[in-house]
Amino acid sequence: MTPRIYIPGDSGALALGAEKVAKAIANELAERGIEAKIVRNGSRGAYFLEPMVEVATANGRVAYGPVKPSDVKSLFDSGFLKGGHHKRWLGAPDKIPFLAKQTRLTFARCGINDPLSLDAYKSLGGLKGLQNAVAMAPADIVKQVTESGLRGRGGAGFPTGIKWKTVLDTTSERKYIVCNADEGDSATFADRMIMEGDPFVLIEGMAIAGIATGATKGFVYIRSEYPHAVAVMNKAVEIARKAGVLGVNVLGSPNAFDMEIRVGAGAYVCGEETSLLNSLEGKRGVVRAKPPLPAIQGLFGKPTVINNVISLASVPVIMDKGAAFYKDFGMGRSRGTIPIQIAGNVKQGGLFETAFGLTLGEIVDEIGGGTSTGRPVKAVQVGGPLGAYFPRALFDTPFDYEEFAKRDGLIGHAGITVFDDTADMLKQARFAMEFCAIESCGKCTPCRIGSTRGVETIDRLAAGIEPEKNLALVTDLCNTMKFGSLCALGGFTPYPVMSSITHFPEDFKPAPARVAAE
Ligand SMILES: Cc1cc2nc3c(=O)[nH]c(=O)nc-3n(C[C@H](O)[C@H](O)[C@H](O)COP(=O)(O)O)c2cc1C
Ligand code: SF4
């Protein structure tokens, strides 16, 4: 049997040197006259082990990582094509603790095979959900998705089934499915990983959404910073079309559904759904007032489902294994699994899919292994740049939409950024206001003007000018932004600011006292 070597082509792995490793392995094979097949898979998401190279042996896959080009000769000398021992040896990939502890439903196939092999996708259960869907009435598909408890993974946590029902119930000669792949939140990469590592699951999810709501056309809006994801998705759509997964007769059924990939132009606010729709229509990315809801008047004024990549990519497993199976995972009103993306100053960064309910402490200390600097964790920002900073005192908070809201936080797109005790939370609060000022679409005053005034006021605090007065001013400003902004960019910027002030008051002391304390 020709040996098979798996080297990730995922952009996270490429950033860590996977291309150089692939070249070194190809050269070594040629030099030694060994015939082997190199498969470029996606990433399994254990980024602290990337580039993670795997070989298929008679006893299953064996992983090595993180592999450097300088390791390649010794890997061959150690007989790695047969799973031989080496300092980079990790054993069977699914036994690596970071991967073994996960519950992979949405990411079940991600990183295992060539992402563009439809046969490999099918061999691991792909297309079963769509096959079930084409045999069902649209209302029954919507019912399954509603009963699964799936909520939007883009940030707001809105029930996916209810959104779909609104589109299904709205009569129109044309409807659309729009996939939000703008993924602008700091520390998030789940959308990118699925698009690069298992693109057919997103295509399958979008086709199911189309059949469920009566939409025949879909668009994936991908951020311009994701050229690899754009390339993989474009190829995957072409393959799916040729194979009859997309087209006028989806899987041979009377249902039509096709889709296109569109590239964004680098604005955070274009991740906000109405701004995204404007951008997709070729207009400036400015937020639209709601109502009308996009579900009733969305893209080109037509009823539109707009969902995050992970929301859509979670639908195939629901339609394959049933709503009850999916709903069985999780806690409270947070059902199913969530791909938590662990980043920042952390030892074991990567994607960890698990049922809702793990505590923040378990995620940071046990899964993430604490900080990469080895210093104590000071704060963790959960939910991207608009998420709150949690101190260690709140590490018992379970990963659950309502539990985070109770503590003035949010899960968002489930990205977490870890900071050690050298972080200055006043600087982080300033950064939040500055980020809002830079990214504001400018439509409403609390966000457009408030964020700039926020930066100035925090600067005065840092300089020790009238600290009590300026602290009260920032708090007042945050209240105005929270309750007076049109969208969550202005409305949620107060979360990182106020959580910094509330949980780390020592960082907001007047400048001389801050210097003395250091
Ligand atoms: C400023 C801002 C940026 C956003 N960025 C994203 C994004 O990058 N990706 C995303 O899926 N949702 C983003 N959202 C949320 C979307 O507006 C919307 O809620 C989401 O696409 C709905 O899909 P879901 O129900 O599947 O989560 C953003 C919201 C705001 C206010
Ligand atoms: S809150 Fe900011 S980004 Fe949102 S509509 Fe207002 S100005 Fe635009």
UniProtKB/TrEMBL annotation:
Gene3D superfamilies, per the entry: 3.10.20.600, 6.10.250.1450, NADH-ubiquinone oxidoreductase 51kDa subunit, NADH-ubiquinone oxidoreductase 51kDa subunit, iron-sulphur binding domain
Signal sequence, start to end: none
Residue ranges constituting the NADH-ubiquinone oxidoreductase 51kDa subunit iron-sulphur binding domain according to the UniProt record: 426-471
PANTHER family attached to this UniProt entry: NADH-QUINONE OXIDOREDUCTASE SUBUNIT F
Sequence similarity: Belongs to the complex I 51 kDa subunit family.
UniProt keyword annotations, A-Z: 4Fe-4S, Iron, Iron-sulfur, Metal-binding
Species this chain originates from: Mesorhizobium salmacidum
The protein's required cofactors: FMN
Official protein name in the record: NADH-quinone oxidoreductase subunit NuoF
